[in-house]
Amino acid sequence: MTNTANQTIAGVMALVRPDLLAMSGYEPVEPVELTAARYGIAPERIAKLDGNENLYGPCSEAVAAVMQVPFQIYPDPDQRLLREALSAYTGVPADQIVAGAGSDELIDLVGRALLSPGDRIIDCPPAFGMYRFEADLCGAETVSVPRRPDFTLDSEALARAVDARTKIIFLTSPNNPTGNLLSRRELDAVLALGPAVVVDEAYIEFAGLDTSVAALVPQRQNLIVLRTFSKWAGLAGLRLGYGLLPAPFAALLRVIKQPYTPNAAAEAAGVASLQQLEPQMKRVRAIVAERDRLFPELAAIDYLDPIPSQANFILCRVTRGDARRLRDRLRERGVFIRYFNRDPLRDCIRVSVARPQDSDLLLEALRAIEP
Ligand SMILES: *Cc1c(COP(=O)(O)O)cnc(C)c1O
Predict the structure, then answer these.
(1) Which end of the chain is more exposed for a tag (fewer CB within 10 A), N or C?
(2) What is the spatial order of strands in the sheet that 313-318 belongs to?
(3) pLDDT tens digit string along 330-357?
(4) Pocket perturbation via mutation, ligand 1, pick of 128, 134, 226, 340 by most ligand atoms within 8 A of CB
(5) Are 310 and 351 in contact (CB under 8 A)?
(6) Cβ(256)–Cβ(229) under 8 Å?
């Protein structure tokens, strides 16, 4: 009996969409505890500077709010409290806001709403890897329009790249991993091309909220702004992000999304962070001050050429030796960073800006290493 079943049923893998079998997947950062334990490094000697997280953590008000959540009850599927608080924070009406389990969920929702197999997205490398991942997942194609050597957009090449199959242009401001802001002129040119324009503002609090393009959302039909609590608010592990969207599109996303994301703990922590902004904004200012202290110190390392950044990380060209080997040497010393050795970024590392003690561990290691 079982034999017959085995012979006639090929199994679930034979039923998988063929395009997914070739998918490479998103490259997440590896948990540092594993690597640290492997090298026998004490926790206080670890500087986790590879994920752009906020190492000060969330404000105590957010932690206290999580403790009050009745976890036995489903969260509000309409996200009323959270969307009202987000509306006050962003100046965008609540009916144009959708929250999710990280801005990653918003990228996924936008992709699922807009992309059919054969459609195209445009990304502008060096870019965040999640956009291409989403396109792959939806069976869409990614067209890359590399940024210019100074990391501004190549507006002419972008205009040439758009065709009838192009549904979404993904931009990041400040950009990850280069740290530069999108200019208003660049944005206007891209908005005029026609496809949906996603401006991912994951790091905008570190650049200053006055550099955000959120205020344009109510005036434009094809502008989507994504934000997250993962970086400025120290809530990466709780997963909380949101989109600011044209009103009818926000309504559509509410129809197609899973009803109970973000979870109740994330929602409570988010509302608390927004209601008591000052403690968390103080940490944002401390990180910005640390960025200003760290930059000249990195520039003084004779094999590094740091690039000015508006975010909580600094990209550096490695002008001597091998960026990958530098990454490995730093890791052996408990300092975790990202390295890039793929076009258009070669021989580069990206270090997150965190607390002064984290920078000190980084600088001490960099000074001791010959890459
Ligand atoms: C870190 C980051 C995010 C955050 O994603 P979440 O899912 O909200 O944690 C989004 N976009 C970019 C460019 C990022 O670097």
Answers:
(1) N
(2) 304-307, 313-318, 345-352, 338-342
(3) 999 999 999 998 888 999 999 999 999 9
(4) 128
(5) no
(6) no
